[in-house]
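Quick one: structure for this chain?
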Amino acid sequence: MSDSGFDPATIERRIRSFESFGIHRTGWPGDDGAGRWLVDELEAAGAPASLERFDFPRIEHRTARLSWPDGKTTGIPMYDGGTTPPGGLDGQLGSAGDDDLFGRIVVATRDDAGFGGPEIYDRLDELQAAGAVALLMVAGDEHGDVIVRNAERIDRPHQLPVLQLAPNDVSNLMPDVLVGAEALVEIESERLTSAATNVVATLPGDEPDAAPVVVMTPRSGWFTCAAERGGGLAIWLAIAEALAAAPHRRTVELVASSGHEMHHYGLLDYLRAHASLTAPDGAVAWLHLGASIGAKRAMPRLAASDQELLAIATRAIDDAGADPRDAMPAGSPGGGEAREIHAFGGRYVSFLGGHPLFHSPNDTTDNAVDPESVARYARAAMTVTEAMLAL
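Got it. Here's what it folds into:
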């Protein structure tokens, strides 16, 4: 088995290369460039690869701006939120907890109840029913720079306009909120059909009729995503390189999917295009290399479809000397693409988690990646893959 991909220096080189393409939003130049680079890396490792195209809803924002008596700033609209008419919407500023929200531009933070997780869509329904005209979502990392939400409802966007703002850019906003000052929100955008790609490869096994194993990792995100996506991609490449150099019983299917921040658009297309993998007699197991693997100050989690695979993954992590992960109850997929495998009853192991710079423009290699930790998790992931091949 080839060990080069498990070396911390190789891991760091690959993560820095991935980061160098810039912003990795689905279908953006950085996403396209990283896809071609991954194909080249796989080819060099002896794993012939290709790009599989899929269509997705591309949101092109022309204006995303807030003006209030004491300032003006730009933000990032919620991609599954609404837009304003040309010229914007004006209204009095208000807080999420105010009794009367009619005509108000509401300001909320992740500390406000219901705005920090998936239940935000329920809160948007409540705000709209109360007559609010827009939501300003103020969420930032430890440096005060913006943290962005994934667009979980990209195919059924909410009508309420939502502008995501960095705390640094609205530090003087709250006094105007307290007095109900007038503000103007402008979100003008266009929804287009565009194309992005998944990176795929097949490593044939010695027993072609044996059900395959799938190793998958997302590759897109809001910013440079060095720790969010880089660790998973480096491990994915290491596993591909090792398996390309050694015989194995089952065929291994590899997919690095785009569309992650758009409700897993790329993986869902892959599952439709490779429907045999999701059939009852399809893939024997799936390994999901999710977010923030080996990040500095990580908040790691482990999920698995059943107790057998959870025990295998737990032992692999312990044996590799990796930081213990918070294990979820067997059968709980957590966030990330593993939930799509859970939905059709597939068996899976998922490495996932977060870190303090998650979904932030400050998620860079220097700020957020620990190559030694990624290398330990790479060993654990390889052990899990080998166990799946032996099922």
